[in-house]
Specification:
Elements lengths: L1 E3 L2 E6 L26 E6 L2 E7 L5 E7 L4 E7 L5 E10 L2
Antiparallel strand pairs: 1-2, 2-7, 3-4, 4-5, 5-6, 6-7
């Protein structure tokens, strides 16, 4: 779950077991068991860019559009490749 200025949402990209999981459960996006510091930038009242780096040298950037309930995720790997994902945001009640 993620709280961006009052928008508590569940990310619908991948299963979450602990920490932050934006991967598919397959290498090299396997679950990591630490919580990296998240940084956020408010783009508009309902759109945020959230980013963090993982210990394995991966960098993750989300653009989260709470108004439309969609998240765009970009995961950049140490070898220079990238994976782009799109998922849903579901309000947590």
């Amino acid at each position: 779950m993620f709280d961006a200025s009052g928008h508590l949402q569940r990310l619908g990209i991948a299963p979450r077991r602990d920490g932050v999981d934006t991967g598919t459960g397959q290498a090299p996006f396997r679950q990591q068991r630490h919580q990296p510091p998240l940084r956020q930038l408010r783009i508009s009242p309902t759109v945020f860019m959230v980013y963090w780096s993982r210990r394995a040298g991966q960098h993750v950037v989300h653009v989260e559009d709470f108004g439309n309930g969609v998240v765009y995720s970009n995961i950049f790997l140490p070898d220079g490749s990238a994976q782009r994902l799109k998922g849903t945001l579901t309000p947590v009640k």
